[in-house]
Amino acid sequence: MDFIADSYHYEKESFKIVAPKNLIPTIEAAVRSTVPNARFDGGKELKITTDWAAGLVVKAVLGDFKPQVLVDKEILAVKYDEEDRKRRQRERVRLAVLRVLEEAFDLAPAPWGILMGVRPVKMVHTLIDRGFTEEDIRRMLSSVYGVEPKKRDLLLEVARRQRGFFKLTPNQPIGVYIGIPFCPTRCSYCSFAAYPLKTHGHLFEGFLCALYSEITGVGRLLGDLGVKVESVYLGGGTPTTVQGRRLEKLLSLIQRYFISAETKELTVEAGRPETLNPETLQILRDYQVDRICINPQSMHDETLKKIGR
Ligand code: SF4
Predict the structure, then answer these.
(1) Distance from the CA of 294 to the center of ligand 1, in angstroms?
(2) How many angstroms is it from 51 CA to the middle of ligand 1?
(3) What residues are paired with 196 via a beta bridge?
(4) Disulfide engineering: 237 pairs with which of 28, 96, 154, 180, CB 3.0-4.6 Å?
(5) Whose CA is nearest to atom 3 of ligand 1?
(6) What is this model's ipTM?
(7) Which of the listed residues 177, 191, 192, 305 should we mutate to test ligand 1's pocket, taking the one with most ligand atoms within 8 A of CB?
(8) Which helix (H) or strand (E) holds 196?
(9) φ/ψ of residue 47, rounded to 5
(10) Virtual CA dihedral for 88, 92, 95, 100, nearest 10 degrees?
(11) Strands 56-62, 39-51: parallel, antiparallel or unpaired by DSSP?
């Protein structure tokens, strides 16, 4: 418990950001990725400057802590266009903010650097698609995204394996993902489209009606095209916020329109264990759900309380 209390000593920090206006949203998002409950109404001054006089130089200064200066001349190469330069500036700002916060709050370097969202491997595929060599990508993952060597090698390995499955032929089986964007509450670290039932419950019924008709429409289209579904993943949000007869209807439509002899897996994510009960489990079993994915995130009640779960 002491450890938990220590690691949250900065959670209520507030910052006064001094930076070019167009970078403020990037800086706020970068701060929140490390200090989730940060406020921006005064407090510690976080000053970010950028300079393109001889390459890109980004400087982040937070109070009296050691400033972070990132220099990037490579982005001036002709293979990059204006959009790349704008993106690189945002990425450098995010990394400089991360590094200065790590210094200020004595945090261990984030192993994934600024690739903190879901599917960091997506970035690797984008770079491969654009013709960058493995060596280029290796260097960029370290210097631009701040990914540590072990995670960098893992990303490259995962991307290599995934590429083999990317060349779809028209009638190859597909995977279907269905997202239910509602949760009991919103976790403080959440970056998904997920809305708490308490504030957005009035949209629940309308959303389900639209989803039922979309499943029907897509299912018919796949039938007409002769495309089979290999796997269905019901994710979110928290799909098990759908309960009772609504859940039965949803699963019966999935069974009717997507599941066939060729389907290998039907998964339902029960991210929030408190949404599971004997009735829901029975319904999942009745509709031949093969896999339930439960993500408690932590076994510490205190931590769960702090992250809003
Ligand atoms: S349960 Fe998952 S999707 Fe829902 S708010 Fe928490 S992190 Fe976001």
Answers:
(1) 12
(2) 38
(3) 183
(4) 180
(5) 237
(6) 0.99
(7) 192
(8) strand 195-196
(9) -110, 125
(10) -170
(11) antiparallel
CA–CA distances in Å: residue 167 to residues 60, 123, 164, 171: 43, 18, 7, 12
Residue 120 has which token pair? 């960091």
For ligand 1, atom 6, name the residue with the nearest CA.
Answer: 187
Three-class secondary structure of residue 14 per DSSP:
strand
The residue whose CB lies within 8 Å of the most ligand 1 atoms, and thus the one to mutate among 33, 180, 183, is: 183
User: From residue 294, how far is each of 104, 119, 238, 269, 271 by CA, in Å?
Assistant: 35, 19, 10, 6, 5
Going residue by residue through the chain (309 aa), what tens digit of pLDDT does each one get? 344 444 455 667 899 999 999 999 999 999 988 887 889 988 999 999 999 998 999 999 999 999 999 999 999 999 899 999 999 999 999 999 999 999 999 999 999 999 987 789 999 999 999 999 999 999 999 999 999 999 999 999 999 999 988 766 667 889 999 999 999 998 887 878 899 999 999 999 999 999 999 999 999 999 999 999 999 999 989 999 999 999 999 999 999 999 999 999 999 998 888 899 999 999 999 999 999 998 888 888 888 888 878
Give distance in angstroms: CA of 186 to centre of ligand 1: 6
Candidates 118, 180, 186, 189: which one to mutate for ligand 1, based on the most atoms within 8 Å of Cβ? Answer: 186
Longest dimension (CA), the chain: 66
Q: Cα 45 vs. chain centroid, distance in angstroms? A: 28
Place of tokens 């990914």: 147
Pocket residues for ligand 1 (CB within 6 Å)?
183, 186-187, 190, 192, 194, 236-238, 271-272
The DSSP symbol for 264 reads -
